[in-house]
Amino acid sequence: MAVNYNGSPLLKVTGLKQYFKVSHTFTVKAVDDVDFEIYPGETYGLVGESGSGKSTIGRSVIRLYDPTAGSIRFNGMDISGRMKASDQKALRTQMQMIFQDPMASLNPRKKVEDIIGEGLDIHHMCSSAAEKRDRVRAILEKVGLAPEHASRYPHQFSGGQRQRVGIARALIMNPKLIIADECISALDVSIQAQVVNLMKDIQEETGTAYLFIAHDLSMVKYISDRIGVLHLGHLLETGTTDEIFAHPVHPYTKSLLSAIPAPNPAVEKRRVAMSYDYKTSGIDYNAGTYHLLEGTHYVKCTDPEFDAWK
Amino acid sequence: MAKKQPVLAAAETAYVPTDADFVLKNADDALMLDTNFASQSFWKDVLVRFFRKKSAVLGLALIIIITLMSIVGPGMNAYTYDGQQLTQKNLAPRVQGLENYGIFDGSETMHTTSGNKTVNNYIEKDLTDVYYWFGSDNFGRDIWTRTWSGARVSLIIAAAAALIDMIIGMSYGLISGYFGGRVDMVMQRFLEIMNGIPRLVIVTLLLLVLEPGMLTIIFALMLTEWVGMSRIARAEMLKLKEQEFVLASRTLGAGKFFIIFREVLPNIIGPIITQVMFSIPTAIFTEAFLSFVGLGIPVPRCSLGSLISEGFNAFTTHPYQIIPPVIAMALLMFSFNLVADGLREALDPKMKEM
Amino acid sequence: MSDKEKILDIKDLDISFKTTAGVVHAIRGVDIDLFTGETVAIVGESGSGKSVTMKAAMGILASNATVNRGTIQFSYHHADGSPATVDILTQPKKWIRDHINGKRIAMVFQDPMTSLNPTMSIGKQIMEGMIWHFKTPKTEAYAKAVQLLREVGIDDPEKRMKNYPHQLSGGMRQRVVIAIALSCDPDLLICDEPTTALDVTIQAKIIELIRRLQKERGISVIYITHDLGVVAKVADYVNVMYAGKIVEKGTVDEIFYDPRHPYTWGLLSAMPDLDTADERLYTIPGSPPNLLYEKPGDAFSPRNRYALVVDDKAEPPMFKITEDHYVASWLLDPRAPKVEMPAELKARIERMKEEAAKHGSEL
């Protein structure tokens, strides 16, 4: 599905800051001044190591956290501050999330049909129990599970099957944006491919947009239209997948790309990953501003750094 | 490990494939639906594990027996718990049938200054047709009847304690844990103050305004008994509230109380039940202690605690009077603890199976 | 080939577990051998039995496990240099603890946070093994621990000795775990998913570290992993495991450039490389089997697009392709129809070979 980049973005995040106060003297700056946009029907990949703030961004956007500063505009609504009840309801139906851990993301004491139908119940979207059941069954079939299994409990499913249930729970609300928070990293390789294929099929069919958060770059490259590289809460580089992979600019992006393992023994045995250490690199993320390279390819750096890297 | 004992015989019936077998199945459609499932329900697993533990089963059996006895026991003979027969006081246990074997024949050994002597008051008072199975007390009341009606009081207290635990303690802990922050701080400080006042002081103060009796005891329990449970519930809530399934509910727009009671509560039912079972013996003991010091069930009604107290007064002269309530009490606490222990293991298996 | 010394020889290993739900036949006749100084990777999905096999080799199976058949021969040298071979399965637990675990076979686990003791300084944890197994004097153990920390690439080792696990980053912790594993100079190192809990950039560093240490010390390494990138980087030989059986084994080049089993095809193509541009990834349908319910014939057939009728009737034997390359699939039977690997994978392998040739010529 071709993405229209000339229209208005579905999600526009500007200057997002998410700080957590640990004690009176210590504050963790999990996300610091991040800008990015997601267009309808697009897949935006967020990559970074653990602690880079990629999951925090996802949770701030869906308002599991209250953002410290910055604005989040979703589908024409401002969802960064206190929301009107109607906006709240729109956010909770039109934006959905798929979680990382297929074991923990489904309530072990609830039947699969109740888990999937929870959103319908909360927002009273079904007029009768029969309608709800039919919708749950239809969605189960869509994600490749047998509808007869609707009355089972999560522990009776394998990891990949549970992740499908998680996808079904998000999908039944017909969302415009799905935040996929590391949703394949806990799965076996063969199952990862199944889930990614399923997500692609769904996008084709429904035109939903994804915010795909992951640390596995080869999968991110495969699924994403555009990518953002995060490190220590800063979005260092963003652009289309080709722009990032063909012309990485930021040293961190380069080191990240060099670390991707290739399933090719002759090449892999000789490859040595590049090292990158923020402390010794002499780069100050806080001093950087976004510089445009070409198209949608931005890098966060100071002017002299920009001249040196580009 | 490593006991060489074949569980599965090697596949000896080796099938010899024929040419006809080497054909592609081409069952692509069947591949698309995923039909691999494990199937064993959580509660069935819990039951299997619980009944595998012998001590827990023993505890459960004892509780059932004591409960049954507390229901039918007082009606098994003609005596009532408060019926006094001053002519028949301090009689030793005497049981039909057993008396012929030289035990429970109503004789007791008296310690006197001139040495020990064995007397049988039934014979001396010419009460040939009278039987007190556990003996009679200082007012000629039947200890059998009193023991079981005392046990009944203890069990009612146990049930009350369980209810209080479940309703007050659990809700308090869950709410305090879920909201966190300032709410949690205030609720926890309040709880610490409540917990800081000694129970005896509370009960004594309560007796200034309330009549002594079962309700007062339950009221006293209500004031402090739930503290342990609320701590457990709060800890479990803190553990679960950042779990992804709770977050998922929040992203779907679920309300706070929906999350607390519909999402989280069913998941902590294991520790809750265990805590209830452990708090029951404490409650029983509290009641017994209060009755023992005279702040409990008023006479002529009795509880195991007041029976022990009375028996204690006659301990040197008629030791049989204290034995039945002590044994009933001990068995009751012991078996609740066994069941609690078994439940804890059954609900929260630490050992992984593979 | 014949003058190489075999260090571990697992023959026909068969293990089942008694669980509340019934008997789980987890390992069904596994053969693995490993020669001194070489690296074997065991690849498979979770539940395929790869970790259980290695736990058996360490003598740390859970108490509800039953070994039905098989031997695990481990060869080592006594302190005086005389060789010895034991069957781990027949040795008492205490003997294994005193003579094998940590001392001759060491293990690196997946999660460095849980495999370190949070209440003990890392220096103490490194010295513990030496003091326990060899009664090394404290000062000597201390010196060796510092040396080990330096070897695994930790700066300022003297200072780090006093640190506790929570003061270190994930990558550092895994380095410490490796230092602990190496503290008694083991002959065999078993790495159970050593990098899955770590970030990509650190993953590469840890793998490179293990490879360097292996070369320097001449130890043998077994990798348990589901990450084919790791396998490509480290392994000499690969065993692909499915539902408690080895379905394909061979040298790393044979597995990556000439895979024969449909399951291996699926594994290889499920992982996109950076040049994958296909609309869909080729996947293995379905999910791993539940070993509670054994099915006759080939356990993989319900998920196999190339399943034959015979797959439901009889278990395939190991077909030999080359000296090292074995495949358990009826597709290799001369009577079977000729089946080609999926086109996507074929294209990918061609691409990989080209790239490999390019790299070869550059070097």
Describe this structure in words.
The complex is a heterotrimer of chains A (310), B (354) and C (363). Chain A is α/β, with parallel strands linked by helices and 310 residues long. Chain A has one domain (11-309): Rossmann fold (3-Layer(aba) Sandwich). Helices cover 35% and strands 24% of the residues of chain A. Chain A is built from twelve helices and twelve strands. In chain A, the strands form two sheets. An eight-stranded mixed beta sheet of chain A has the order 6-7-8-3-9-10-12-11, with helices on both faces. In chain A, strand 1 and strand 2 form a beta hairpin. Chain B folds into two domains: 46-78 and 145-347, MetI-like fold (Orthogonal Bundle), CATH 1.10.3720.10; 92-124, no CATH class. In chain B, strands 1-2 form a two-stranded antiparallel sheet. The two termini of chain B are 12 Å apart. Chain C is of the alpha/beta class and 363 residues long. Chain C has twelve helices and twelve strands. Chain C has helices spanning 50-58, 93-99, 112-115, 122-134, 138-151, 157-160, 170-182, 200-217, 228-234, 252-257, 262-270, 343-362, and strands at residues 6-19, 22-35, 39-43, 65-77, 83-87, 105-108, 188-192, 220-225, 237-242, 245-251, 319-320, 326-327. In chain C, strands 6-7-8-3-9-10-12-11 form an eight-stranded mixed beta sheet, sandwiched between helices. Chain C has a four-stranded antiparallel beta sheet with strand order 2-1-4-5, covered by helices on one side. In chain C, helix 7 packs parallel to helix 8 (200-217). The model of chain C has no long low-confidence stretch (mean pLDDT 86). At the A-C interface, helix 5, helix 6, helix 7, helix 9 and helix 10 of A face helix 8, helix 9, helix 10, helix 11 and helix 12 of C.
